[in-house]
Amino acid sequence: MHYNSSLIILAIAALILGGALVYVFFFSLYAITKRKLFKTNNGIKISSFQNGEVAKTVGKVKYIGKPLVAPLSGRNCAYYHVLVQEKIRVKHSISYWHTLIEERVGNNLVIKDGNYYAFVETSRVKSYLTSHIPYTSGFGEAPTKQMENYLLKYGYESKGGIFKRNNWLRYKEGIIEEGEVITVVGKGIWKRKSEIQLKIPSEKILIIESLNDQVPVFFSNDPNLKYKLTI
User: Fold this and answer.
1) 67-97, pLDDT tens digit by residue?
2) Cβ atoms within 10 A of the Cβ of 26, count?
3) Which contiguous run of DSSP H or E holds residue 17?
4) pTM higher than 0.70 for the full model?
5) Are 116 and 190 contacting, i.e. CB atoms less than 8 angstroms apart?
6) Are strands 125-128 and 54-62 parallel, antiparallel or unpaired?
7) By the number of CB atoms within 10 A of the CB, which of 46, 64, 75, 162 ranks highest?
């Protein structure tokens, strides 16, 4: 019986590992974003967008107005992605990570290519950011004040209270800062500066938005996912 139980545990572990590998290579946010950025044409300059065209472009991020402050690190940015997960133990060495919080926030994400500007709409996006800063807490490893405040914002506590979390928590925070180069895929709509109230040195700006509710804007700051354009 003990032998059979060990085989069952090994089989379950193998299935979990296999499922995780399939997810990473085919269904993860990185995999989905990578496929979209590689498959969508060869890329055009912001100035070459036709009104209503769905295409890929690249540009340097410019702060327009006051930047955001990333909640865990306090870094200034134009966009951030925070993921908080809790380690759930099933049996013995079998465990998985359960997502408690996932937040993507953008604030005037504007890119520049020469004398042309594009505003990236971030209400419906799939983004992959590099250089996520990892944090952990639990079992003697105390969370920082920023981590505590972020959990409380969503009704969780790392210790004590109704939403007590005794398990390991892991936090990841990725940001896009000024001067970074990002690759974007979306539908471009030209608008006058006065229509969107952005202080840019140009009379018109390209709005890069989602095609529809099912097809969002895709973007990444991964240098391996961008193509070469003079910017």
Assistant:
1) 999 999 999 999 999 999 988 877 767 788 8
2) 10
3) helix 2-22
4) yes
5) no
6) unpaired
7) 46
